[in-house]
What does this fold into?
Amino acid sequence: MSKIDLLLEKYGESHQNGINKLIHWVCVPSIMFSLFGLLYSIPFLTERTLYTNWATVLLIFALIYYIRLSLPMFLGFVLIGGAMVYGVNAIYEMSFGDAKMVALVSVIIFVVAWIGQFIGHKIEGKKPSFLEDLQFLLVGPAWLLHFIYKKVGISY
It folds into this structure.
């Protein structure tokens, strides 16, 4: 069994309850988006743009992780992560370059989504996987993507 399959299987062990799964479909992408927003809000070394910001730096490191696991996961997260950073950049531009507004929106989403995650795990009766291994913070989004890949017939 490949490493990605082992990680997805291990992650799935604490995500069997249908309500918890549904909560994860909403909260995991929300947490990703809000994390990109929080990082985007931090002043960068140069002028903040779509490509020069801390969210893009995080995305690059996450993509390195994903490409080591699976090329299809990597390609999926190039699209997903890129779209999320683009969305955060759009919020920044719509707020007339107010990074504090991006941070505020991101904090609200982050807190609400994590509350949702913990409610889901309370319903599940199992603790979140990342409490065992922080790597599972990156496996969670891949776990969701693997369901989409299975549905459309893409092997990962």
Q: What stands out?
A: The first helix runs from residue 3 to 13. The CA atoms of residues 41 and 99 lie 5 Å apart.
